[in-house]
Write a structure and sequence with these properties.
The protein is α/β, with parallel strands linked by helices and 340 residues long. It has 10 helices and 15 strands. The chain is globular, with a radius of gyration of 20 Å.
């Protein structure tokens, strides 16, 4: 069994990591780092035989083949550095660094020590994104001319998204990564980021324009005080336009206590009423959603570690996305297009 330790048992650790690790036949959730008594009780209720630890060092000493960090961004750098120096393959929630300089330090350390390091970009396996990717690759929309991606909700209590290091680096990391995976490197950006007055590193809204080297033009939007959320994706091509609303079902399923191993549900399968549609002139045709598969990240990670292969998200991809995030902040603060 491949033993995976988890640091952090908040919302992300409990719902976005632990169920996926536990669902894989060749993996075992080896232990969880949390000092919170409340979260320790939750851990025991969820996985009665999984031990809790006070520190990452204690978890490593107990024996793990890899470690996952689902902890606040400002605490990640030193812990990732420690894990790499101890030879432990590491997965970090995104972003694993709050700027490109720190990201490069960690990437260089990973390569120098030959210890795998990657970021948890699970939304590469969202149902809606897989559907968009399939449509673009198939050519069914013709030549894609414009691409819009957005996630909006009404959550003013999470002002500035402090637990994620600001909405841009938290949610924006996913949305930029998805655009990068579809259309490749970015040449220039223009951004508007709503920074919080009490901490300019935090923000709760952003609008980005990405110009890719291949000529593709992308609009990306994130907003946490939107009473009427807009489209999730809108992909316009010469032969038609694909539109889908809402969010991938895997989040709901995980919060309800299910996992890819659950027999009561079909994990990642979207009901028909949540499908998107292709519009050609005035005619709309429902288009079946691909099946979401967050567990695919872990399957690929374990295989890469065991066979010394490529990580599911490479360091080059992570560094490129981090550079785009940094450029977006410069663009917003200086009100100009920034060339990468």
């Amino acid at each position: 069994m491949f033993r995976i330790g988890l640091a952090g048992y908040g919302f992300g650790g409990r719902y976005f990591h632990a169920p996926l690790i536990d669902s894989l036949d060749n993996c075992r959730l080896a232990g969880v780092v949390t000092r919170s008594e409340e979260r320790r009780h939750e851990l025991t209720a969820d996985y009665e035989n999984v031990p809790a630890f006070d520190t990452v060092d204690e978890l490593i000493e107990a024996g793990v083949d890899a470690i996952v960090l689902s902890i606040p961004p400002r605490a990640r750098f030193g812990i990732i550095e420690n894990c790499l120096k101890r030879g432990i393959p590491t997965i970090s929630d995104k972003p694993f660094a709050l700027n490109l300089q720190d990201a490069r330090i960690l990437a260089d350390l990973s390569q120098k020590r030959n210890v795998p390091l990657t970021a948890y970009m699970n939304r590469r396996w969202d149902s809606d994104f897989l559907t968009v990717e399939k449509l673009i690759r198939s050519g069914d929309l013709g030549k894609v001319r414009r691409f819009y991606s957005g996630i909006e909700s009404y959550n003013p209590q999470n002002e500035g998204n402090p637990s994620g290091g600001g909405l841009l680096r938290d949610l924006g990391s996913h949305l930029i990564d998805q655009a990068y995976k579809l259309f490749g490197p970015v040449e220039s950006v223009y951004a508007r980021v709503d920074e919080m007055p009490f901490d300019r590193e935090l923000n709760n809204a952003f609008f980005l324009v990405l110009n890719h080297r291949n000529g593709m033009f992308c609009r990306i939007n994130g907003y946490m005080e939107q009473h009427a959320p807009g489209h999730r994706f809108k992909v316009d091509g010469t032969e038609g336009c694909f539109i889908i609303d809402g969010l991938d079902i895997q989040t709901e399923q995980a919060i309800e206590g299910f996992s890819p191993a659950s027999e009561e549900i079909e994990w990642g399968v979207e009901p028909e009423h949540r499908w998107g549609f292709i519009q050609k002139e005035m005619e709309r045709t429902p288009y079946p959603s691909s099946r979401g598969a967050w567990q695919e990240f872990y399957k690929r990670f374990v295989k890469a570690v065991q066979e010394k292969g490529e990580m599911p998200v490479t360091l080059d991809e992570i560094l490129d996305v981090t550079a785009i995030l940094d450029a977006c902040l410069v663009s917003s603060r200086e009100n100009r297009v920034v060339t990468l």
